[in-house]
Design a protein that fits this description.
The complex is a heterotrimer of chains A (282), B (339) and C (264).
Chain A lengths: L1 H28 L4 E3 L2 H9 L6 E5 L12 E4 L6 H6 L4 E5 L4 H9 L4 E4 L5 H15 L2 H22 L6 E7 L4 E2 L6 H8 L2 E2 L11 H7 L3 E5 L3 H11 L5 H4 L3 E4 L1 H5 L3 H15 L5
Parallel strand pairs in A: 1-2, 1-4, 2-3, 4-5, 6-8, 6-9, 9-10
Antiparallel strand pairs in A: 6-7
Chain B lengths: L1 H27 L10 H7 L4 H35 L11 H14 L3 H4 L3 H21 E2 L2 E2 L1 H24 L3 H12 L7 H19 L2 H7 L3 H6 L4 H23 L5 H13 L3 H25 L8 H19 L9
Helix pairs in contact in B: 1-3, 1-14, 3-9, 3-12, 3-13, 3-14, 4-6, 4-7, 4-8, 4-12, 6-7, 6-12, 9-12, 13-14, 13-15, 14-15
Chain C lengths: L1 E10 L2 E11 L4 E5 L6 H7 L8 E6 L2 E2 L5 H7 E4 L11 H6 L15 H13 L15 H14 L4 E5 L7 H18 L2 E5 L3 H7 L2 E6 L2 E6 L1 H4 L2 H8 L3 E5 L6 E5 L2 H6 L1
Parallel strand pairs in C: 3-8, 3-9, 6-7, 7-8
Antiparallel strand pairs in C: 1-2, 1-4, 4-5, 9-10, 11-12
Helix pairs in contact in C: 4-5
The chains are: A alpha/beta (282), B mainly alpha (339), C alpha/beta (264).
């Protein structure tokens, strides 16, 4: 009996030992020097709490403010290969905008590159976030953050459920006029906020002003950087027959907020949009 | 005669030296911040280190491609300026770069690189170039006679048409594609595929050798087509072959490196100021100095505002133009003056 | 040596030359004359491989010139244009050496010693040897024309064609060039065909003349036969007096101005 107990203890000890050692091994297999070539991914790394493993990012990674201080090795599209190499990363996170030839070159040089394509819906944003969590060994943290965001989202969408669905036009580009179709995650903002995106069924984002006037949205949201937004707002205001113009419901949203989404930031922006498209009845 | 040959060999020797110095300089300089003192020990014994990889996997391929593209464009420039007897002609005047850019544009927008892999972009560029070459040639050749003026006009027209089509495609494409198109067009010597670089090098060298078979013909053509005919040159055959040679060199260069302007225009002129218009010396000296020039410009492009990189075509334009204007004001340039 | 048969030249519906027939013996010194637009230059060029004929044949030493290769032909026939382009800035020696192109071998890039000797000889004959190292752009019109002749001679041709070589030249150079060509014709047996607008020069230097009018041959023969006051009036529509040159006994045309006509 005593021998059996001893054997069992040994067995359990061996099991635990191998489990711990493989956990340690797995931990040391996790990327320790990460370079992010996509602002959204930079933000997500900070969310997951692994920012000390981030060694460099792009010059446009300005969120959160601490990210500005990291070493800069790229623009959104072009990478400085020499700088990347000299930093000896064990993981480079690329976007679909990153120059594919450079991605190829990095792989040829023996560097691990994972590409995250542009998310086209909120669920894709969540999936990518989870994937990132898995890669850096923070799967649990990712799941936790996701479930929090989902909970918050449900409460927001719940609020808008019984309200009338206003017709919304979301403009993301000027000259040429570019709308948001259901091919983009921005469409989900409108969907979850309880509005109808008049351009959601369009084949391409190229839109004509005439079509917008014809569809007569109640709200126009302009997502764009700088003065262009103001100019566009002025142009829309001149159309007296446009509902959005009549009721002065043309809003400008900062593209920095919208364009590099994390699950958390998505929900924050969603809240703002709900406020914009639903008017509190007098 | 002996004196002439010695002076020619002297120039070739000098320019080879300049090329080597520029190459060494380019190898030692970059945004990785490797100190100059470390370069030689690195080359000799640094195999396997990251710094070694930076020198030989990142910088060296760019230097080699720069040499190949620079010389290809310069040779094409010499040939075309000799054929057209027009100092404003450069490899892109024939519309070849427009065709290549259009080919790449369509590839990116139609997502063809999913099918073809990483080689599909240069392939579609080359295909676009070939289509333009055939179009320009068939539009300008009447009854077996290749009219020089016709070539020029057709080329310019096709350039315009290609640009308009490219702008059209850019206007209706998504942001991701747009970036890809613009950066390709602006020109870059970064090429991941070493086999492709070898192909360009091979074609440049071949191009140089073949152009020498026509050096005397080019000299005779400088007197005018009729005079050249009287001197026993088969001008029709010569024009045809020279056109194909220059087009292939240009098409190859453009499809791999994008549109890098000014090199094919300025380098031949510049060399003419120093070595004269005899094509037997002009071809090799333009090839050598064109390569050195492009390597130098690329080095500046990737270091001036590091970590950002300027498109190499911007540097070739500014520096090429400035140097050229300076020397033009000092020396007289004589090219094919008519009585 | 040269035979032209039923030659017709032109484009679209326009005929520049038609019904041209003549034969030139080796060693001849022929001149082609006629009013402006009569087709003189075209006729000269028709005897080279430059022009495509609509009809007819040109036979050189019995062989149709179309059957000659370009190089082969250039070794036998040289052409001196009226105004030659200067090409890139080269020395006179390099300019003359271009005449050796037809003799260049397949992979030969540099001129051989033999080429240099021939070029030297050509420059000596044309008295341009003193400009050997000067740039072509530095020479006067007359000197340049002599250099062009030197280049043609470097081709070692059997037939020399010249298109108005004396146009734009002063009288010194006119005579120099024509004297040179006649000397080559008499001493070396070089066959010459020269287009001239100056009838007196044509009369003085040429053994036989072809007078063209509106693309047709009006008269072929020795100067005495061709340059009569009646023929000149028919072709040139102008009244002249034809005298005998007191020194050479060749026809000499005297111009009669409007004023003088009034006085008669």
């Amino acid at each position: 009996m005593k021998n059996l107990k001893l054997l069992l203890c040994c067995f359990i000890a061996i099991l635990m030992f191998s489990y711990i050692s493989s956990a340690i091994q797995a931990e040391s297999n996790l990327p320790q020097r990460i370079i992010s070539l996509k602002p959204a991914l930079t933000r997500e790394l900070y969310l997951l709490g692994v920012e000390d493993r981030l060694v460099a990012n792009t010059i446009y990674c300005s969120q959160p403010p601490e990210a500005q201080k990291k070493e800069k090795v790229a623009t959104v599209t072009k990478v400085n290969l020499e700088k990347v190499m000299i930093l000896r990363p064990d993981l480079v996170l690329a976007s679909s905008l990153t120059n594919s030839e450079q991605v190829e070159k990095l792989k040829n040089l023996g560097i691990r590159v994972t590409t995250f394509s542009t998310a086209r819906s909120f669920s894709q944003i969540c999936d990518q976030f989870l994937e990132l969590g898995r890669i850096v060994g923070k799967e649990k943290e990712a799941e936790r953050i996701l479930s929090q965001s989902r909970k918050k989202m449900n409460s927001i969408t719940g609020r808008g459920k019984n309200l009338p669905k206003p017709k919304v036009f979301v403009q993301v580009g000027a000259k040429p006029l570019f709308a948001v179709t259901n091919d983009s995650f921005v469409n989900d903002f409108i969907k979850f906020a309880g509005g109808i995106n008049i351009a959601s069924g369009a084949k391409t984002g190229l839109y004509s002003r005439e079509k917008v006037l014809e569809q007569n949205p109640d709200v126009i949201i302009i997502v764009t950087m700088g003065i262009v937004g103001e100019e566009e707002k002025e142009i829309w205001r001149k159309y007296k027959t446009l509902n959005a113009a009549k009721n002065n419901r043309i809003y400008i949203v900062d593209s920095y907020k919208v364009c590099s989404p994390t699950p958390v930031s998505f929900v924050e922006v969603l809240e703002e949009i709900v406020g914009l498209i639903h008017v509190k009845d007098e | 005669m002996n004196r002439k040959l010695i002076s020619w060999l002297g120039w070739i020797f000098l320019l080879s030296g300049v090329l080597s110095v520029v190459g060494a300089f380019s190898l030692s300089v970059g945004s990785a911040g490797i100190p100059f003192k470390k370069i030689i020990p690195l080359i000799l014994g640094g195999r396997g280190t990251t710094e070694y990889s930076i020198l030989f996997d990142i910088r060296l391929p760019r230097i080699i491609l720069g040499l190949a593209v620079g010389s290809a464009l310069s040779i094409a420039g010499v040939i075309l300026q000799g054929m057209f007897r027009n100092p404003l002609v450069e490899p892109y005047t024939l519309g070849i770069s427009g065709g290549a850019a259009l080919g790449v544009c369509l590839n990116i927008v139609l997502r063809l690189n999913r099918i073809g892999g990483i080689l599909s972009i240069p392939a579609s560029g080359f295909l676009g170039a070939v289509v333009v070459i055939l179009a320009v040639y068939s539009l300008s050749a009447r009854k077996g006679i290749l009219k020089i003026q016709g070539l020029l006009l057709t080329g310019v027209m096709i350039s315009f048409i290609s640009s308009s089509l490219i702008m059209l495609i850019m206007a209706i494409s998504r942001a991701e594609d747009l970036h890809g198109i613009i950066f390709w067009i602006m020109g870059s010597l970064e090429e991941p595929n070493l086999a492709l670089i070898k192909v360009v090098v091979l074609i440049s060298i071949l191009g140089l050798f073949i152009s020498y078979l026509f050096a005397t013909e080019l000299n005779a053509l400088a007197l005018g087509e009729e005079e050249a005919l009287h001197l026993g040159i088969n001008t029709e055959k010569t024009k045809r072959l020279l056109f194909i040679l220059a087009s292939l060199l240009t098409g190859c260069a453009v499809s791999v490196a994008g549109v890098i302007g000014f090199v094919g225009l300025v380098v031949p002129h510049f060399m003419r100021m120093f070595v004269g218009g005899d094509h037997r010396i002009l071809l090799i000296t333009s090839a050598l100095s064109g390569g050195a020039f492009l390597i130098l410009c690329d080095t500046l492009a990737r270091t001036i505002i590091a970590p950002l990189e300027l498109p190499v075509g911007v540097i070739t334009g500014i520096i090429g133009g400035a140097i050229f204007v300076y020397f033009l004001s000092k020396k007289q340039v004589v090219l094919g003056s008519k009585q | 040596m040269l035979e032209v048969k039923d030659l017709v030249c032109g484009y679209d519906s326009k005929f520049i030359l038609s019904q041209i027939n003549f034969r030139i013996k080796r060693g001849g010194f022929w001149g082609i004359i006629g009013p402006n637009g009569s087709g003189k230059t075209t006729l000269l060029k028709a005897m080279t491989k430059i022009l495509k004929l609509r009809k007819g044949k040109v036979l050189f030493e019995g062989k149709d010139i179309l059957r000659f290769g370009f190089r082969e032909f250039a070794k036998k026939v040289a052409f001196v244009s009226q105004s030659s382009e200067m090409g890139y800035n080269m020395t006179i020696k390099e300019f003359v050496l271009l005449g050796r192109i037809p003799y260049r071998r397949q992979f030969q890039f540099l001129e051989s010693k033999h080429d240099e000797e021939i070029a030297e000889r050509a420059m000596i004959l044309t008295d341009t040897i003193r400009f050997k190292n000067r740039l072509i752009g530095e020479l006067s019109g007359g000197e340049r024309q002599l250099a062009v002749v030197a280049r043609a001679l470097a081709q070692e041709p059997r037939l020399l064609l010249l298109d108005e070589p004396t146009a734009h030249l002063d009288i010194t150079h006119q005579i120099r060039i024509l004297d040179l060509i006649r000397r080559l014709n008499r001493q070396k047996g070089l066959t010459v065909i020269v287009v001239l607008h100056d009838l007196n020069l044509a009369s003085e230097y040429c053994d036989r003349l072809i007078l063209l009018n509106n693309g047709l041959i009006h008269k072929v023969g020795a100067p005495q036969e061709v340059l009569t006051y009646q023929i000149i009036e028919d072709v040139y529509n102008t009244t002249v007096v034809v005298e005998k040159n007191p020194i050479s006994s060749k026809p000499y045309i005297l111009v009669v101005s409007e004023e003088e006509k009034a006085n008669v």
